[in-house]
Amino acid sequence: MRIGELAERTGTTTRTLRYYESRGLLSARRTGNGYRAYGEDDVRLLRQIRLLQDFGFELEQTRPFVECLRAGHPAGDSCPASLEVYRAKLAELDACIAGLQAVREQVGAQLARAELEAGEAEPRCELSPGPGRAADQLSGSPAE
Amino acid sequence: MRIGELAERTGTTTRTLRYYESRGLLSARRTGNGYRAYGEDDVRLLRQIRLLQDFGFELEQTRPFVECLRAGHPAGDSCPASLEVYRAKLAELDACIAGLQAVREQVGAQLARAELEAGEAEPRCELSPGPGRAADQLSGSPAE
DNA sequence: GCTGGCCTTGACGTCAGGGTCAAGGTCTAC
DNA sequence: GTAGACCTTGACCCTGACGTCAAGGCCAGC
């Protein structure tokens, strides 16, 4: 099949397929007129790449899977190198999630504090809050 | 103070400060020779920007905080627009964390399956795992 | 007056993953 | 025999937040 059909069958674009080829992830035979020619193997290979891309893998990280398939293995993750990428990705995801959760807490704390200060500067409720709050009355902005 | 000192005091670079100026986040008076001149207000403003940047805010998202400080408020988050950015960021963080956790689960499942298949194709342990419970025998990574 | 350090503007490079054109070759159907 | 769909390579554009020159102005110290 030619590049347009392969792109359609794998839900991508011809530009993307040429880009993958330029990165060495995909290769194509050429027909007499110079057109790229692909087979079913390339469909499987691309589905593998797209799956990993959907998971957020960088293109380079899909390379072991591609090479595994090319080597004739039944699945892209049948090789140790692919499993290592899985594990590294899991570690990366865990670190990323932990980092984001830490930021989330800090931003949440900032928001809570800012809302509190806004509420104190401009009290809306009838109840008078207890003492110890005069130091925060900063809203009288100095002139410029 | 001049740009080099400001960069040093705020832990950034002169290139970054000029970039912020080009984005309209920072402005500078000029001395007779054309050098940029900054004051303490700019230090506070930059500290605000860098704090948010450390939290992963995009530069554009720091603009309300900057404008709030410029308007004379005591803190960058003293204005409603800044609080809205906080809230939007929290929602964004939550969505991002949830998405990453979902991916983490899927990648984890892929790894478990691939390890299982690798183990079946090349059985290493003496025990023959019975059907149905083999999935739990994975913790002692088979290969390597 | 000379060296070294700081400053200026402007322009290009980076990273990933492509999008979009341009100019042209090829093939099929009518 | 020609329109239109497909293919080719090559080249530039995009995002974000800067890094890295290049070429030159300004200033302090010796």
TrEMBL record, chains A, B:
<keyword id="KW-0804">Transcription</keyword>
<keyword id="KW-0805">Transcription regulation</keyword>
<protein>
    <submittedName>
        <fullName>MerR family transcriptional regulator</fullName>
    </submittedName>
</protein>
<dbReference type="InterPro" id="IPR047057">
    <property type="entry name" value="MerR_fam"/>
</dbReference>
<dbReference type="InterPro" id="IPR000551">
    <property type="entry name" value="MerR-type_HTH_dom"/>
</dbReference>
<dbReference type="InterPro" id="IPR009061">
    <property type="entry name" value="DNA-bd_dom_put_sf"/>
</dbReference>
<dbReference type="Pfam" id="PF13411">
    <property type="entry name" value="MerR_1"/>
</dbReference>
<keyword id="KW-0238">DNA-binding</keyword>
<feature type="domain" description="HTH merR-type">
    <location>
        <begin position="1"/>
        <end position="68"/>
    </location>
</feature>
<feature type="region of interest" description="Disordered">
    <location>
        <begin position="120"/>
        <end position="144"/>
    </location>
</feature>
